[in-house]
Amino acid sequence: MLVAFDVAALLFVALLVALAAWQVHRRAYKLDLIERVEARVHAAPIPAPGPGRWSDVRSATDEYRRVFATGDWLEDRSTFVQAVTALGGGYWVVTPLARDDGTTILVNRGFVPASGREPTSWRPGPKPATVVGLLRMSEPRGGFLRMNDPRSDRWFSRDVAAIAAARGLGDVAPYFIDAERSPGDAGLPVAGLTVIAFSNNHLVYAFTWAALAVMAAAGAIAVNLDQLRRGWIGVRKESPTEIQS
Length: 245
Fold this sequence. Notes:
This protein has helices at about 1-40, 60, 160-165, 200-245, and strands spanning about 45, 65-75, 80-85, 90-100, 105-115, 130-135, 140-145, 145, 170-180. The chain has about 240 residues and is of the alpha+beta class. The strands form two sheets. Strands 2-4-5-9-6 form a five-stranded mixed β-barrel. A two-stranded antiparallel ribbon has the order 7-8. It is elongated and about 105 Å long. It is found in: Cell membrane; Membrane.
């Protein structure tokens, strides 16, 4: 029975140690990711990927990269995506930007409160417009427990494919751009509200798993020592009987 217990305890401790090591590995990956994203965010903007590169755009290599694009706003095809920001609740204004090559990029022009949804209250957009911002990947389906409903024009995430289909857009980039705020920008929409945050609790998790491994090992050792003690006491009790016989 003790042998089976020891084998199970050994496997359990090994599992906990493996989990601790995995969290250390995850922490190294997360730190590298944060460093790479910070470098992209503060780099000089580059042209937004064109159709020849669309199939190669990946979150790991392109998201949060500063890009720029020039075109004409298709303001009558804007989409309002529900949002909660540091400014309160309201909407992201996602407007197609039609480029000279016949392609379109969806641009998150910024935030408007519920009372500012009417475009006549916004600052006039330049024609043509040059947008500088962060490349973001599409957000399929919807938000947490809230699915996009194109038929009712209710949007909870910036799902590029679904928005493009609902607005009858043609050749649309598989990503969108979060416009950044330019110096002197005022009025609506309020750009530059992108939140870049990566949770990095892996070191805490690693210590937790390691502590549990130490506790489990200590418990197993305690059980084995107790069994040895009981066996030793049993031998001592039997010794007088053996001598009398």
